[in-house]
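Support case: user asked for a sample of complex input and structure output to validate their parser. Sending the pair below.
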Amino acid sequence: MEILLLLILLPPLAGAALNGIFGRRLSQAVVSLIGCGAAGLAMASALAMAWMYSRSPEEPAPFIPSYFTWVEAGAFRADFALYYDRLTLVMTLTVTVVAFLIHLYSRGYMEHEGGYYRYFCFLNLFLFMMLTLVTAANYLLMFVGWEGVGLCSYLLIGFYFRRRSAAEAGKKAFVVTRIGDAGFTLGVALLFWTFGSVDFQYVFTRIDDFTPGYMQGTLAAAGLLLFLGAVGKSAQLPLYVWLPDAMEGPTPVSALIHAATMVTAGVYLVARSHVLYAHAPIALTVVGTVGVLTAFFAATIALTQNDLKRLLAYSTISQLGYMFVGCGAGVFAAGIFHLVTHAFFKSLLFLAAGSVMHALGGELDLRKMGGLRHRMKTTWATFLVATLAISGVPFLSGFFSKDEILVAAYEGPLGHRGVFWLAVTTAGLTAFYMFRGLFMTFHGPSRVDPAVDRHVHESGAKMTRPLIVLAFFSVVAGYLSWPQAWGGAQRFDHYLDPVFGRSMALLTAENLRPVAHGWGHWALMGLSLTAAATGILMACWFYLRTPEIPGQIAARFDGLYQLLVRKYYVDEIYDWLFVNPIKRLSDAFLWRAADTSAIDGVMVDGSANATLGVGRVLRRMQSGNLRSYATWVLLGAVLWLGYALWR
Amino acid sequence: MPLTHILALSVILFGLGAAGFIIRRNIITIFMCIELMLNAVNLAFIGFSRYLGNLDGQIYVFFVIVVAAAEAAVGLAIIIAIQRNRETLTIDEIDSMKM
C-alpha cells in the first residue's frame, strides 16, 4: 500500500517533468497522451488505493506511511510521510476523477492554442501539488502542496501571458493568496511552538487529550491563523478578489481551480484540522460566519454579472461559503459532501461555458448570447443538469449536499438561526442567478453577433464526452448521502464518522441544541425548496416571459444596481486602501530612495567609486621611476628599523 | 680588531651603496651600487661570525656571493637588452613597461 499511495502522486509529477522538458519537441498527440495518461494513472492508483484501504483490516484507522526524514533541525523534525484515511480517500478520488475529465476535455479545448505542452505540464503539476496537499501527513508537507497550487494557479491564470490583463490576474491571484499563506505559516509555527511538532497524528492526539477548554486561546489563535490561509486559498471574504480575475486563464483551468484543486484546499484544511477546531469553538464560529457572509455577498454580486465566467466565479465563492458554513456549524462531513458534489457540477458548468465560448469565438458576454439551445444540444443539456444541481432541485446532487448544510446550520452544534436564514436566502439567490445565466445563454432570441452566428456549432466529442460523464456524476453524487428525512442513511456522513466523530461528539456535548426530527427535517427541506423554486420562477419570469423587467428594475433602483454591477466597489476600495499606498511607497521610498539612492548609489556605485578614488591616489606611487621606488623602500626600511629599535 | 670597526665600515659601504642607488642615473652604476650593498652586508656577516666564533655567517656569505653572481649575469643581460631596445641607459627615461 505504501507504494500504491506514492503512485497516486508520482504520475502527475512525471507527466509534468516529461512535458516540461521534452514537450516542445513532441507532437500534440504525444503531449496530450502523456498529460492525460498521467492524470488517468493517478486516478487509477487512487481508485486502487481506495479499494485496498477499504479492504485492509486496520480500516478506518488512518494509514500513515513514512518514506524518509525530510527535515531535521534541532527539535524540529518533519518526515516525508503521507496520511490516508477516509477523508483523504474522498479527496483523492474527487480530485483525480474531476482532474482526469478536465485533462480529457482540454485536449479538444486547447487544440488550436499555442503552448500546448506548457499547458499540460502546468496542469499535471497542479494536480500533483493538490494531491500532495491532500495526502500530506504534516503541516509542512501540506504547505508544499499549498504553495505549489498557488504557484500553478499563477502559471495557469497567466497562461496567455502576452495579454496584460492575464498576466496581472495571475499576479493578483499569487499576491492575494500570499496574504492568506502568511496566516497559514504563522498558524503552523504556533502549533509547532505549542506542541513541538507539525505532525497531524501527534498534534491531534495531544489536543484530543486536553479537557475541553484547556489552552483554548492558543488553539483558537492557531485555528484562526490557519483559517486565514483557507480564506486566501478558498476565496472567502475579504480575500476573494483574486478568483473572479482568475477567469483570464483558459476555461478548463478555471474548472480545475474551481472544482478539484486550489479553492477546495481551504475547506480541506479546516476539515483536516477538525480536532483543533473542536477544541476552539470560537474559531469555528468565525469560520461559519465568514462562510455565510461570503456566500450571501458573492451571490448578490453574481446577480448582475454579465460575463458568464465571472458569474460562475462568484457562484463558486458563494458555494465555498456554503462549505464553510457546514464546517463552521461543526458538521464537517456536510462541508466535505458539498465539496464533492460541487466539484462535479461546478467543473461541468465551467466546461460547458468553455464549450459555449469555443462556439462563439471567445465571446463571454451574456448579452451577446441567447438561443443556443437548439444548436448546442449536448452543451445545453449538461449545463441545464449542472444548473439544476447547483440550484438545489431535488434528486440532483446539489440538493442533497445543500440540504445537509442547511440542516447543519440549523441544528449543528454551532449552528445559528441567523446563519441558517442567510443561507436559505442565498439558496434562492443562487437559483435565480444560475437560471438567469442559463436563460440568457441558451434560451430566448439569439443576440449573437451575426458575423459569429454563422460559425456557431456544437463542440467535438473530445469536449462533449467529459461533459456527459460529469453530468452523470452531478446527478448521482448526491445519492451517496440520501437524506434521513427520506428514510435514507446519510451514508456519506456516517462514512466520515471515524474521522470527524470525536470532534462532532465533543462539540455536541459542549453545545447542545434542539435537533429537528421527522417533520422538522421536512420543514427545513421545504424551506430550501421554496427558496430554490422562488429563484427559478423569478428567473423564468424575468428572463423568459418578460425580458424587459430586469432593465426596468435596474433603472428604478439604479444606485443598488450600480453597486452590484461594480461588485460593491471592493476592488476600487482595495486599490485605494492598499494597492495605491503600496505603489506610492514603492515608487517614492523603495524604488527611488532605497534602491536607486541607497543600494545603487551608495553601495553598488559607491564601492566602485571608492576603489577608483583610492586607486587614483595610489597610482601616483607607481610612477615607473626606479629611484623613487628605491626611496620608498629605503624609507620603509628605515621606519621599520626605527620602530623595531624604538620599541 | 673590534667588531665596531668592522660594522662601521659595513655601514659606510652600505650607505654609499644606498645613496649611489638613489642618486646615480646610469643603470650600470646603480648595478654596481647594489653589489656594494651586498658586499657591505657580507662584511657584517663575516664580522659577526668572527665575533661570535660561529661559522653560520660565513655560510650565508657564500650563499650571497652565489646569488650575487647569478644576479649579475641576469642583470647584465637585462641591461644589454635595454641598451639594444631603447638606446639609453639613463634610468629616468626608462619609466614605463611599454616601449
